[in-house]
């Protein structure tokens, strides 16, 4: 099974959504309008980050934590309940 955050990023981009990543690092940098590679790099550069997906009028936040030995679906530990998150959850799980 693909890691949840990677599946989410690809799914969002395939849906035509805008993907932002807040890397939560010392600089608290927000990477806006990311490609798959940019979003993956930003998430993997820190232990905890937030992926924000914009679809039409929906804004959905996904909280990501990367820890050694996690199961793939455990990388996203919390997210907003929106139409987009419900669709992603149905496809991923």
What attributes characterize this protein structure?
globular, 3 helices, five-stranded antiparallel sheet, 93 residues, alpha+beta, 32% helix, 5 strands
Question: Could you explain how this protein is built, in words?
Answer:
- By secondary structure, this protein is an alpha+beta fold.
- It contains three helices and five strands; from the N terminus they run H-E-E-H-E-E-E-H.
- Helices cover 32% and strands 29% of the residues.
- A five-stranded antiparallel beta sheet has the order 2-1-3-4-5, covered by helices on one side.
- It is globular, with a radius of gyration of 12 Å.
- The model has no long low-confidence stretch (mean pLDDT 92).
Structural class given helices, strands, pairing? alpha+beta
> Order of SSEs, N→C?
HEEHEEEH
Q: What kind of assembly state do the chains in view correspond to?
A: single chain
Strand content: 25-35%
On the 0 to 100 scale, the average pLDDT is: 92
Number of domains: 1
Q: Mind telling me the C-alpha Rg?
A: 12 Å
Helix content, binned percent: 25-40%
The helix tally amounts to: 3
Poorly predicted runs are none
Distance between termini? Answer: 10 Å
Q: What general outline do the C-alpha atoms trace?
A: globular
Largest sheet: 5 strands, antiparallel
Neighbour order of strands in the largest sheet:
2-1-3-4-5
Number of DSSP strands? 5
Brief summary of the model shown:
With 93 residues, the chain is α+β, with helices and mostly antiparallel strands. The chain has helices at residues 4-14, 36-44, 83-92, and strands at 18-22, 30-31, 48-55, 58-65, 76-79.
